[in-house]
Each structure stands twice: as C-alpha cells, then as structure tokens.
Amino acid sequence: MTEAIANIRAEALLRLQAAQDEATLDEINVSVLGRSGALTEILRAMGKLDKEQRAALGQQANAVKKELEAELAARRAALTEKTQELRFAQEALDVTEPGKVTQPLGRLHPMTQTYREIRDALIGMGFTTFEGPEVEYDDYNFTKLNLPQDHPARDMQDTFYVNERVVLRTHTSPCEARALLTVKPPFRLVMPGRVFRVDEVDASHSPVFMQMEGFIVDRDLTLADLKGILLTFIHAVFGEDVKMRFRPSYFPFTEPSAEVDVSCTICGGKGCRACKGTGWLEILGCGVSNPHILENCGIDPKEWKAIAFGVGVDRITSLKYGITDIRLEYENDARFLSQF
In this predicted model, what pLDDT tens digit does every residue of 254-275 receive, in sequence order? Predict the structure, then answer.
C-alpha cells in the first residue's frame, strides 16, 4: 500500500500540473480525494492491517492528502488569476481611441424655442414675467375682466368648470386682474401659461394650448404705443422684413380692439395656401384695456391706462416653421421633433 499511495501522489501531481481549467481540477479532486477516490479507497482498506501498519499507512496517506489538497488549491488560484488576466485583456479599452458611434443629442421642442424667442424679445423691451394659476376663480377669469355672469361674451369662451366658482382658465388674462391687485403701477408684464377650452382636437384646435400675454399699465398710454411695441416684437421674432397691419376687432377686455396680421412668412406676402392667397396671416389680438377692468381691481382709470395683447405660442410656432397641423406640436413624435 505504501507504493500505491506513492503512485497516487505522483500521478495526481502530474495531472494537477497539466490541468488547464476548473473542470479538470474538479475531476481530479473527485477521482483522488472524493468519497470514491483512489486515496479514499486505500484508507478504507487499512482496516484489514494490524495496528502498527495502520498507523504508518494512515500517517503517509494523510500527508499525501494534505499535500494534494494544498496543490489543488494553489492550482485553482493560479487558473483563476490566469482567467482574469485573459478577460481583462479582452475587455481592455483604449480610452484614447476616438468614438465610433455618435450618440443622438436632445434638442429643445419647437414650441419651447418659440416661447423663449417671444419671452426674450419682450424682456428686451422692459417686460417682467408674471404667472398665475391654471385652476382659476371665475371672478378672475371673467367678472373682474368685464364679463359678469349675464354677459353674452361669456359664450365666446368654451369653459371647463370645476364648480360654480372655479374654472380651468380660458386665457391668461386673469393674470391681468391679479397683477392689478398686487403690483404697483407702472409696470410691463409678460404672462405665459397653459389655457384650456372645450374644443375638438383637429389640425387647428386643441383643448389645451399655450398663450403669452403682454400687459402694460402706465400714464397716457395710447394705441400708438401698443402698435410700436408690437412692431418691435414682430421684427424680433419674425425678422425685419415682415410687415404688420391692424384690423378692427372686438374683445370684451379691450376698447378699442384689434387683430394683428403679419405678411405671410411662407410666401413673403405674394399669396399661397397658408395665407389663403391674401398674403397676410393673423397672429394675435390686442387693444387698450377697458377702464372697467382697472376699476374692478381698485385702479383709477383717470390716472392710469393699460394696453394688452395675447399671442398663441403654438400659432407662432406653426407660422415660423411652416407646421400645418397643430397636433404635431403636442404629440411628441421624435421623428417630427428631430427636424427642429
């Protein structure tokens, strides 16, 4: 048995040195040191020997077992280290190598771009941003703006009612009432925000859209001041070559009131489908604020005057970029937005 143990040791050491993977090491461990392994079988057969022989062979077998276990552990550690080195070599990155794939970059939504152009143009003329709540009291949305409960002009607003006293604002004009009650005149304010109206969704209508309202309170304001501000604003947004015209109109908040047109940004005023052959495009409404609005908010209309204008951001966006369907501006289709 002494010779058999020596042979098992020699053979096992050779196999361990030659092993190149974990599976081979596991097979050696099972075939030599396992419950049915060669060395284990010898230890079981020692029961037939006398006491002195069992002691000598047991000592030899245990020494070989410890040696092989140590060698097995060392070989396993060496293979693990080698495997890691190979994996690291394969996964190594050259950080100095130029990138091969260009990651797509995000960009501003066209309405955001237009909003910022409008905002910056007005801030450049001395306006300050003023905001109000989207869920608004009926009193601010209508009554204080010269639209009492029985006023027929209320029918112009298709309103979402939360209850009898609260609505989703139908325009940004409630900010005018809030400004008159909280800001000491004179002032120039630009009032941006979402507004809501009961409307069917189609190429030119949406129940939710964004407005920006300009509101100025000062002494001795006239329609001429309003026209000069709007001409400067239009040139800043559309370019110096764009022309402007006023058309008489009606709004319950202003008197006199006007619609503002610009020469068609698509055909340059020559006439096309976008402007229906007229060469002009409507962009906003404006006027001199009704004195009753000032009175309703505690401002003396004999001392102070106000002028106002409101513009739809989606409308200006469509005109600037030739967008024929307003729904494209709200659907967030990446294929569409990537064009801007």
Answer: 989 999 998 887 777 787 777 7
Residue 279 corresponds to which amino acid? G
Query: Quick one: pLDDT band at residue 153, thresholds 50, 70, 90?
Result: low
For residue 121, pLDDT over 70 is answered with yes
Residue 104, preceding peptide bond in cis (omega within 30° of 0): no
Task: Look up tokens 């409630």; give the residue.
Answer: 174
Q: Please report the pLDDT score of residue 295 as a whole number.
A: 93
Cα(307)–Cα(288) distance, integer angstroms: 4
- Can you tell me the mean pLDDT for 225-233? 93
Please give the model's pTM, rounded to 2 decimal places: 0.66
**Bridge partner list, 262:** 244, 281
Res. 219 pLDDT band, cuts 50 70 90: very high
Q: 89 with 30: CB under 8 angstroms?
A: no
Top-tier CATH class for 110-337: alpha beta
**pLDDT band at residue 304 using 50, 70 and 90 as cut-offs:** very high
In the chain, where the domains are located: 2-91, 110-337
